[in-house]
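Entry for the shared binder. Reason: the reviewer on the internal report wants the predicted structure included alongside the sequence.
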Amino acid sequence: MSLLSKIVREPLVHFVIIGAAVFGLYALMSGGGREEAKGKIVVTEGRVQQLAQVFAKTWQRPPTQEELRGLVDSYVKEEVYYREALKLGLDRDDTLIRRRMQQKMEFVTEPSDELLRADDAALQAFRDSHKSAFRVEPRVAFEQVFLNPAKPGETAPVRAKQTLEALKASAPGEIPPDVGDPTLLPTSMPLSPLSNIARNFGDAFATNLTDLPEGEWAGPIKSPYGMHLVRVTKRLDGYDPKLADIRAAVEQEWRTKEREKLQEQAYDDLLTKYEVILPSGETVSPESETAP
């Protein structure tokens, strides 16, 4: 066996060669860092194009040569101050910078479109477990006559009874001009969801509408403003629509919930890299109920 063959087979030689390769790779990878330490700022052609594109989107025209040079100068100035600020540690304990970096990390961990794509089976399961969110509310159309309980004269119940008799004796679809008291509330409402009616007349009023007969005057029912005599002109019951009819809305809600879940999972994965110690000295983990 030749001397060269013996040297090649020697383990110590292998160790020296591997060490030299690692040292060389580190020197190559850290070359940019040494350039930055020396104060070198390299403005690439790609950076110049990016500055020009941002200018064009803002002003709807490409920059002139003088404007482009100004953009480059501004970038260099920004880079100089940025590096000097990092050397002084000005990025530490700055709430605005910390939040901005958090936003960037959340953007980096944003789930891909592939992860936010669901088939009909997944959407159907989601819709079935969130029926109340997609249920079509009952809708009611009605006319109403307002009675102010604070009006002097006959008591409110007596006035309500008399007014109700006058309304029942009137022609169908007509409200005598001399009945009821002035109000800013609408005298008639088109077919509307109960939640919309509740915003105008109160929750109790909207709930009582579901018990009134259709096509005849009834009441009185109360609202935060006083008492009302009501004639329901049309009523449609609520129902649970089929997935095909509300697929876009279900998919949008599913994507929102799935995005939140995946982002929370990404945060938990990052949190496992750290030991969090509270002021009490307690150590917490993502699985702990007291985790911040």
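Summary line for the report: The longest strand covers residues 226-236.
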